[in-house]
TrEMBL record:
InterPro entries the UniProt entry points to: Poly_export (IPR049712), Poly_export_N (IPR003715), Soluble_ligand-bd (IPR019554)
Annotated Soluble ligand binding domain residues: 114-164
PROSITE patterns xrefs: PROKAR_LIPOPROTEIN
Pfam families: Poly_export, SLBB
Name of the featured protein: Polysaccharide export protein
GO molecular function: polysaccharide transmembrane transporter activity
Start and end residues of each Polysaccharide export protein N-terminal domain: 35-108
């Protein structure tokens, strides 16, 4: 009769170890990417100003394939490029028979959204604003539920074309396109 108790303890220990095995600390790239220039992606919207050319000055969306459709020159690649790189590409294309010396400026008008899931009041898609932290994103999503782990969250982020997930403190900054997952606390 006393045999089931050690088996029960062994099973409980195995479950605890299995529960801890999903811990994924944030890779170093999570924090390194914060100090680099912003890379455009699908869902971003950019404001292009071509000085003295009001017909070309407008807001353009980066489509799903990563391009912006620009008058006169057609599709211009934007995904994976900085605003300054898109600026240079547009100026080069406009210089090819359309304008003698184009003066082009590109700035981000609207960032792609973030997603908040898990133990929050209203999971969903939300607008990104520069400087947004995980804690602020949770607040936008209706706050933590009573069962939520409020110390840290899991963030899924695309860095250099690779999707990475890591656990960070709620005070860590977010980037456009991030997915924040608030886990349930154990006790």
């Amino acid at each position: 009769m006393k045999r089931p108790l050690p088996v029960f303890h062994a099973l409980a220990a195995a479950l605890l170890v299995a529960g801890c095995s999903s811990y994924r600390p944030a890779p170093a790239a999570f924090h390194e990417v914060l100090d680099q220039p912003y890379i455009l992606g699908a869902g971003d919207r950019v404001r292009v100003t071509v000085f003295e050319q009001e017909g070309l000055t407008n807001t353009y969306a980066v489509d799903q394939s990563g391009y912006i459709a620009f008058p006169l020159v057609g599709s211009v690649p934007a995904r994976g490029h900085t605003a300054q790189q898109v600026e240079a590409a547009l100026a080069a294309k406009l210089r090819e028979g359309f304008l003698r010396d184009p003066d082009v400026s590109v700035e981000v008008d609207r960032y792609r959204p973030i997603f908040v899931m898990g133990e929050v009041g209203a999971a969903g898609q939300y607008s990104y604003v520069p400087g947004l932290t995980a804690h602020q994103a949770v607040a936008i999503a209706g706050g933590f539920t009573p069962r939520a782990n409020q110390a840290n969250v899991d963030i899924t982020r695309t860095i250099n074309g690779k999707v990475m997930t890591g656990r960070v403190l709620t005070s860590d900054p977010l980037l456009p396109g991030d997915t924040v997952f608030v886990r349930e606390r154990l006790f």
